[in-house]
Amino acid sequence: MGWGRTWALVFAIGYLIYLAFPVGEELTGHHSLTEVEVTFLACTLFVGVYLVFWARVYPGDGLPGAVVLGTLLALSIFLTVVDNAWAGTFIYCAAVAGAAFPPPRSLLAVGATTTVALVVAVVDGGLSWVSWIAAILFLTGLGMVGIRYMVTTTIQLQRAHEERARLAVAEERLRFARDLHDLLGHSLSVIVLKSELAGRLGTTDPERALAEIRDVERVAREALREVREAVAGYRQPSLSQELGRARSTLAAAGIEVRLRHPAQGSVPVSLDGTLAWAVREAVTNVLRHSRARRADICVEQEAGHIRLEIVDDGIGCSPCQLGNGLRGLRERVVAQGGQVELDGSPGRGFRLAVRLPLASSRLGADLSAVP
Prior knowledge:
The chain is α+β, with helices and mostly antiparallel strands. It is 66% helix and 12% strand.
Protein backbone atom coordinates (compact mmCIF):
# COMPACT_ATOMS: atom_id res chain seq x y z
CA MET A 1 0.00 0.00 0.00
CA GLY A 2 1.44 3.39 -1.01
CA TRP A 3 1.78 6.33 1.33
CA GLY A 4 -1.15 8.12 -0.34
CA ARG A 5 -3.59 5.30 0.34
CA THR A 6 -2.15 4.75 3.81
CA TRP A 7 -2.84 8.34 4.86
CA ALA A 8 -6.28 8.22 3.21
CA LEU A 9 -7.11 5.10 5.20
CA VAL A 10 -5.87 6.69 8.43
CA PHE A 11 -8.11 9.75 7.95
CA ALA A 12 -11.04 7.56 6.93
CA ILE A 13 -10.70 5.53 10.14
CA GLY A 14 -10.50 8.74 12.16
CA TYR A 15 -13.75 10.10 10.75
CA LEU A 16 -15.61 6.91 11.69
CA ILE A 17 -15.80 8.34 15.20
CA TYR A 18 -18.97 10.17 14.14
CA LEU A 19 -20.74 6.81 13.88
CA ALA A 20 -20.55 6.66 17.67
CA PHE A 21 -23.68 8.83 17.90
CA PRO A 22 -26.08 6.53 15.99
CA VAL A 23 -24.47 3.50 17.61
CA GLY A 24 -25.14 5.03 21.02
CA GLU A 25 -28.70 5.73 19.97
CA GLU A 26 -29.18 2.05 19.13
CA LEU A 27 -27.92 1.04 22.59
CA THR A 28 -30.31 3.24 24.54
CA GLY A 29 -32.81 0.40 24.85
CA HIS A 30 -35.50 2.00 22.77
CA HIS A 31 -35.09 -0.57 19.98
CA SER A 32 -35.82 -4.25 19.77
CA LEU A 33 -33.02 -6.78 19.87
CA THR A 34 -33.70 -7.84 16.28
CA GLU A 35 -33.58 -4.23 15.08
CA VAL A 36 -30.29 -3.64 16.89
CA GLU A 37 -28.74 -6.81 15.44
CA VAL A 38 -29.82 -6.00 11.88
CA THR A 39 -28.68 -2.39 12.24
CA PHE A 40 -25.26 -3.36 13.59
CA LEU A 41 -24.85 -5.94 10.83
CA ALA A 42 -25.61 -3.29 8.20
CA CYS A 43 -23.31 -0.82 9.97
CA THR A 44 -20.47 -3.36 10.05
CA LEU A 45 -20.92 -4.04 6.35
CA PHE A 46 -21.02 -0.28 5.66
CA VAL A 47 -17.77 0.32 7.56
CA GLY A 48 -16.08 -2.64 5.84
CA VAL A 49 -16.96 -1.47 2.34
CA TYR A 50 -16.01 2.10 3.24
CA LEU A 51 -12.55 1.06 4.48
CA VAL A 52 -11.99 -1.25 1.50
CA PHE A 53 -12.56 1.73 -0.77
CA TRP A 54 -9.84 3.82 0.90
CA ALA A 55 -7.45 0.89 1.24
CA ARG A 56 -7.86 -0.68 -2.20
CA VAL A 57 -9.95 1.36 -4.65
CA TYR A 58 -9.01 5.01 -3.97
CA PRO A 59 -8.15 6.92 -6.11
CA GLY A 60 -9.43 4.48 -8.70
CA ASP A 61 -11.80 5.11 -11.54
CA GLY A 62 -14.53 3.16 -13.26
CA LEU A 63 -16.57 0.16 -12.13
CA PRO A 64 -14.98 -0.54 -8.69
CA GLY A 65 -15.71 3.00 -7.48
CA ALA A 66 -19.26 2.86 -8.80
CA VAL A 67 -19.88 -0.49 -7.10
CA VAL A 68 -18.56 0.81 -3.79
CA LEU A 69 -20.64 4.00 -3.99
CA GLY A 70 -23.78 2.08 -4.94
CA THR A 71 -23.29 -0.37 -2.05
CA LEU A 72 -22.75 2.42 0.48
CA LEU A 73 -25.83 4.30 -0.74
CA ALA A 74 -27.98 1.18 -0.47
CA LEU A 75 -26.79 0.54 3.10
CA SER A 76 -27.30 4.21 4.03
CA ILE A 77 -30.86 4.14 2.69
CA PHE A 78 -31.58 0.98 4.67
CA LEU A 79 -30.10 2.36 7.93
CA THR A 80 -31.86 5.70 7.58
CA VAL A 81 -35.22 4.08 6.92
CA VAL A 82 -34.75 1.92 10.03
CA ASP A 83 -33.73 4.94 12.13
CA ASN A 84 -33.06 8.42 10.76
CA ALA A 85 -30.28 8.78 13.33
CA TRP A 86 -28.16 7.02 10.69
CA ALA A 87 -28.73 9.79 8.13
CA GLY A 88 -25.14 10.95 8.74
CA THR A 89 -23.88 7.91 6.82
CA PHE A 90 -24.78 9.79 3.65
CA ILE A 91 -21.86 12.13 4.45
CA TYR A 92 -19.47 9.19 4.08
CA CYS A 93 -21.18 8.38 0.78
CA ALA A 94 -20.59 11.97 -0.42
CA ALA A 95 -16.90 11.71 0.49
CA VAL A 96 -16.58 8.50 -1.52
CA ALA A 97 -18.51 10.05 -4.43
CA GLY A 98 -16.08 12.97 -4.58
CA ALA A 99 -13.01 10.74 -4.37
CA ALA A 100 -14.02 7.78 -6.53
CA PHE A 101 -14.12 9.57 -9.89
CA PRO A 102 -12.17 12.30 -11.69
CA PRO A 103 -13.97 15.57 -12.57
CA PRO A 104 -16.53 16.12 -14.00
CA ARG A 105 -17.95 12.68 -13.13
CA SER A 106 -17.13 13.25 -9.46
CA LEU A 107 -19.35 16.36 -9.45
CA LEU A 108 -22.19 14.32 -10.96
CA ALA A 109 -21.66 11.61 -8.33
CA VAL A 110 -21.76 14.16 -5.50
CA GLY A 111 -24.94 15.69 -6.93
CA ALA A 112 -26.55 12.27 -7.31
CA THR A 113 -25.64 11.32 -3.72
CA THR A 114 -27.09 14.55 -2.37
CA THR A 115 -30.28 14.02 -4.39
CA VAL A 116 -30.68 10.46 -3.08
CA ALA A 117 -30.30 11.69 0.50
CA LEU A 118 -32.95 14.37 -0.04
CA VAL A 119 -35.35 11.89 -1.61
CA VAL A 120 -34.90 9.53 1.34
CA ALA A 121 -35.58 12.40 3.75
CA VAL A 122 -38.79 13.30 1.94
CA VAL A 123 -39.99 9.70 1.64
CA ASP A 124 -39.08 9.03 5.28
CA GLY A 125 -41.43 11.85 6.22
CA GLY A 126 -38.90 13.82 8.18
CA LEU A 127 -37.90 17.04 6.46
CA SER A 128 -36.25 18.44 9.57
CA TRP A 129 -32.77 17.29 8.51
CA VAL A 130 -33.08 18.06 4.80
CA SER A 131 -31.40 21.48 4.84
CA TRP A 132 -28.35 20.66 6.93
CA ILE A 133 -27.75 17.25 5.39
CA ALA A 134 -27.85 18.71 1.86
CA ALA A 135 -25.32 21.42 2.71
CA ILE A 136 -22.94 19.07 4.50
CA LEU A 137 -23.18 16.42 1.78
CA PHE A 138 -22.49 18.87 -1.03
CA LEU A 139 -19.60 20.62 0.74
CA THR A 140 -18.03 17.32 1.79
CA GLY A 141 -18.27 16.02 -1.77
CA LEU A 142 -16.76 19.19 -3.24
CA GLY A 143 -13.93 19.03 -0.72
CA MET A 144 -13.11 15.46 -1.76
CA VAL A 145 -13.26 16.47 -5.44
CA GLY A 146 -10.57 19.06 -4.70
CA ILE A 147 -8.47 16.59 -2.73
CA ARG A 148 -8.80 13.99 -5.49
CA TYR A 149 -7.67 16.59 -8.04
CA MET A 150 -4.63 17.54 -5.94
CA VAL A 151 -3.68 13.90 -5.39
CA THR A 152 -4.02 13.11 -9.09
CA THR A 153 -2.00 16.18 -10.06
CA THR A 154 0.73 15.27 -7.58
CA ILE A 155 0.92 11.73 -8.97
CA GLN A 156 1.15 13.08 -12.52
CA LEU A 157 3.91 15.48 -11.52
CA GLN A 158 5.84 12.69 -9.84
CA ARG A 159 5.51 10.51 -12.92
CA ALA A 160 6.56 13.40 -15.16
CA HIS A 161 9.58 14.02 -12.94
CA GLU A 162 10.52 10.33 -13.08
CA GLU A 163 10.09 10.29 -16.86
CA ARG A 164 12.20 13.43 -17.20
CA ALA A 165 14.93 11.86 -15.08
CA ARG A 166 14.77 8.68 -17.16
CA LEU A 167 15.03 10.64 -20.41
CA ALA A 168 17.94 12.65 -19.02
CA VAL A 169 19.78 9.43 -18.18
CA ALA A 170 19.02 8.00 -21.62
CA GLU A 171 20.21 11.21 -23.31
CA GLU A 172 23.41 11.21 -21.26
CA ARG A 173 24.06 7.58 -22.18
CA LEU A 174 23.51 8.41 -25.85
CA ARG A 175 25.86 11.39 -25.61
CA PHE A 176 28.49 9.33 -23.85
CA ALA A 177 28.24 6.50 -26.40
CA ARG A 178 28.47 9.02 -29.24
CA ASP A 179 31.53 10.70 -27.75
CA LEU A 180 33.30 7.40 -27.16
CA HIS A 181 32.57 6.32 -30.73
CA ASP A 182 33.93 9.58 -32.10
CA LEU A 183 36.98 9.41 -29.88
CA LEU A 184 37.96 5.78 -30.26
CA GLY A 185 36.83 5.38 -33.86
CA HIS A 186 39.22 8.05 -35.07
CA SER A 187 42.12 7.19 -32.78
CA LEU A 188 41.98 3.44 -33.46
CA SER A 189 41.79 4.06 -37.20
CA VAL A 190 44.98 6.16 -36.98
CA ILE A 191 46.67 3.50 -34.85
CA VAL A 192 45.79 0.77 -37.36
CA LEU A 193 46.97 2.90 -40.27
CA LYS A 194 50.29 3.79 -38.70
CA SER A 195 50.86 0.24 -37.46
CA GLU A 196 50.35 -1.12 -41.01
CA LEU A 197 52.66 1.55 -42.38
CA ALA A 198 55.32 0.73 -39.80
CA GLY A 199 55.04 -2.98 -40.68
CA ARG A 200 55.61 -2.25 -44.36
CA LEU A 201 58.57 0.04 -43.62
CA GLY A 202 60.18 -2.31 -41.10
CA THR A 203 62.63 -3.79 -43.60
CA THR A 204 63.03 -0.96 -46.08
CA ASP A 205 63.13 2.12 -43.82
CA PRO A 206 63.63 1.14 -40.15
CA GLU A 207 64.08 4.71 -38.98
CA ARG A 208 60.76 5.85 -40.40
CA ALA A 209 59.09 2.67 -39.13
CA LEU A 210 60.38 3.49 -35.65
CA ALA A 211 59.02 7.02 -35.98
CA GLU A 212 55.62 5.64 -36.96
CA ILE A 213 55.64 3.30 -33.94
CA ARG A 214 56.44 6.25 -31.71
CA ASP A 215 53.55 8.10 -33.33
CA VAL A 216 51.28 5.11 -32.61
CA GLU A 217 52.29 5.32 -28.97
CA ARG A 218 51.55 9.05 -28.94
CA VAL A 219 48.12 8.60 -30.52
CA ALA A 220 47.29 5.78 -28.10
CA ARG A 221 48.28 7.87 -25.10
CA GLU A 222 46.30 10.81 -26.42
CA ALA A 223 43.26 8.58 -26.99
CA LEU A 224 43.55 7.28 -23.43
CA ARG A 225 43.71 10.84 -22.13
CA GLU A 226 40.71 11.89 -24.18
CA VAL A 227 38.67 8.91 -23.01
CA ARG A 228 39.47 9.78 -19.41
CA GLU A 229 38.45 13.38 -20.01
CA ALA A 230 35.25 12.26 -21.73
CA VAL A 231 34.39 10.04 -18.77
CA ALA A 232 35.02 12.97 -16.46
CA GLY A 233 32.77 15.15 -18.61
CA TYR A 234 35.41 17.79 -19.37
CA ARG A 235 36.32 17.09 -22.97
CA GLN A 236 35.60 19.69 -25.67
CA PRO A 237 37.39 19.17 -29.01
CA SER A 238 38.97 22.16 -30.74
CA LEU A 239 38.39 22.88 -34.42
CA SER A 240 41.89 24.25 -34.99
CA GLN A 241 43.46 21.19 -33.35
CA GLU A 242 41.29 18.80 -35.36
CA LEU A 243 42.15 20.55 -38.63
CA GLY A 244 45.85 20.30 -37.86
CA ARG A 245 45.46 16.68 -36.80
CA ALA A 246 43.49 15.91 -39.98
CA ARG A 247 46.29 17.32 -42.13
CA SER A 248 49.01 15.24 -40.45
CA THR A 249 46.91 12.05 -40.26
CA LEU A 250 45.83 12.12 -43.91
CA ALA A 251 49.33 13.00 -45.04
CA ALA A 252 50.68 9.99 -43.13
CA ALA A 253 48.21 7.83 -45.06
CA GLY A 254 49.51 9.16 -48.35
CA ILE A 255 46.47 11.36 -48.96
CA GLU A 256 47.11 14.86 -50.24
CA VAL A 257 45.32 17.47 -48.14
CA ARG A 258 44.24 20.91 -49.29
CA LEU A 259 43.02 23.02 -46.39
CA ARG A 260 41.23 26.28 -47.12
CA HIS A 261 39.96 28.66 -44.48
CA PRO A 262 39.62 32.07 -46.12
CA ALA A 263 37.49 33.35 -43.24
CA GLN A 264 40.32 34.31 -40.91
CA GLY A 265 37.92 35.07 -38.08
CA SER A 266 36.86 33.27 -34.98
CA VAL A 267 34.30 30.54 -34.50
CA PRO A 268 31.72 30.86 -31.70
CA VAL A 269 32.50 28.54 -28.82
CA SER A 270 29.07 26.93 -29.11
CA LEU A 271 29.90 25.82 -32.69
CA ASP A 272 33.61 25.08 -32.39
CA GLY A 273 33.14 21.67 -30.78
CA THR A 274 30.51 20.57 -33.27
CA LEU A 275 32.70 21.50 -36.23
CA ALA A 276 35.63 19.71 -34.60
CA TRP A 277 33.54 16.53 -34.31
CA ALA A 278 32.56 16.90 -37.97
CA VAL A 279 36.21 17.12 -39.06
CA ARG A 280 37.12 14.11 -36.94
CA GLU A 281 34.26 11.98 -38.27
CA ALA A 282 34.94 12.96 -41.88
CA VAL A 283 38.65 12.18 -41.61
CA THR A 284 37.87 8.85 -39.96
CA ASN A 285 35.60 7.91 -42.86
CA VAL A 286 38.20 8.98 -45.41
CA LEU A 287 40.78 6.75 -43.74
CA ARG A 288 38.48 3.77 -43.38
CA HIS A 289 36.41 3.67 -46.54
CA SER A 290 37.38 6.17 -49.25
CA ARG A 291 40.66 4.84 -50.77
CA ALA A 292 41.18 8.48 -51.70
CA ARG A 293 44.34 10.17 -52.95
CA ARG A 294 43.25 13.73 -52.22
CA ALA A 295 40.93 15.44 -49.73
CA ASP A 296 39.83 19.06 -49.65
CA ILE A 297 38.77 20.67 -46.38
CA CYS A 298 37.17 24.10 -46.45
CA VAL A 299 35.85 26.25 -43.59
CA GLU A 300 34.15 29.53 -44.46
CA GLN A 301 31.53 31.97 -43.24
CA GLU A 302 28.60 32.90 -45.42
CA ALA A 303 25.45 34.98 -44.77
CA GLY A 304 25.20 34.43 -41.04
CA HIS A 305 26.33 30.79 -41.23
CA ILE A 306 29.59 28.91 -40.94
CA ARG A 307 30.14 26.09 -43.38
CA LEU A 308 32.51 23.15 -43.25
CA GLU A 309 33.00 20.95 -46.30
CA ILE A 310 35.19 17.87 -46.71
CA VAL A 311 35.49 16.34 -50.21
CA ASP A 312 37.60 13.37 -51.27
CA ASP A 313 38.25 11.72 -54.62
CA GLY A 314 37.73 8.17 -53.38
CA ILE A 315 35.35 5.41 -54.35
CA GLY A 316 32.23 7.20 -53.08
CA CYS A 317 29.12 5.35 -52.00
CA SER A 318 25.77 4.30 -53.41
CA PRO A 319 23.61 4.56 -51.48
CA CYS A 320 25.32 6.45 -48.65
CA GLN A 321 24.26 4.87 -45.36
CA LEU A 322 24.62 6.58 -42.02
CA GLY A 323 26.81 4.78 -39.51
CA ASN A 324 26.88 5.54 -35.80
CA GLY A 325 29.37 8.34 -36.27
CA LEU A 326 27.44 10.19 -38.98
CA ARG A 327 24.16 9.71 -37.11
CA GLY A 328 25.72 11.15 -33.99
CA LEU A 329 27.12 14.08 -35.99
CA ARG A 330 23.73 14.80 -37.54
CA GLU A 331 22.13 14.81 -34.08
CA ARG A 332 24.68 17.35 -32.85
CA VAL A 333 24.23 19.61 -35.86
CA VAL A 334 20.43 19.48 -35.93
CA ALA A 335 20.35 20.26 -32.19
CA GLN A 336 22.07 23.57 -33.04
CA GLY A 337 19.76 24.42 -35.91
CA GLY A 338 22.18 23.34 -38.61
CA GLN A 339 22.16 20.99 -41.58
CA VAL A 340 24.27 18.04 -42.74
CA GLU A 341 24.67 17.23 -46.42
CA LEU A 342 26.01 13.92 -47.71
CA ASP A 343 26.78 13.34 -51.36
CA GLY A 344 28.62 10.53 -53.07
CA SER A 345 28.44 8.31 -56.11
CA PRO A 346 30.59 5.31 -57.09
CA GLY A 347 33.95 6.41 -58.46
CA ARG A 348 33.31 10.13 -57.91
CA GLY A 349 34.26 10.59 -54.28
CA PHE A 350 32.33 11.61 -51.21
CA ARG A 351 31.31 15.01 -49.82
CA LEU A 352 30.31 15.90 -46.26
CA ALA A 353 29.08 19.44 -45.63
CA VAL A 354 27.99 20.92 -42.30
CA ARG A 355 26.22 24.28 -42.15
CA LEU A 356 25.60 25.94 -38.78
CA PRO A 357 23.99 29.30 -37.95
CA LEU A 358 26.32 31.75 -36.27
CA ALA A 359 25.13 32.46 -32.73
CA SER A 360 25.63 35.67 -30.79
CA SER A 361 27.73 33.83 -28.21
CA ARG A 362 31.25 34.76 -27.33
CA LEU A 363 33.96 33.92 -29.84
CA GLY A 364 36.23 30.94 -29.46
CA ALA A 365 38.88 29.16 -31.57
CA ASP A 366 40.63 31.25 -34.24
CA LEU A 367 40.94 29.55 -37.61
CA SER A 368 44.18 31.33 -38.26
CA ALA A 369 45.70 29.19 -35.51
CA VAL A 370 45.50 26.08 -37.70
CA PRO A 371 49.05 24.77 -38.17
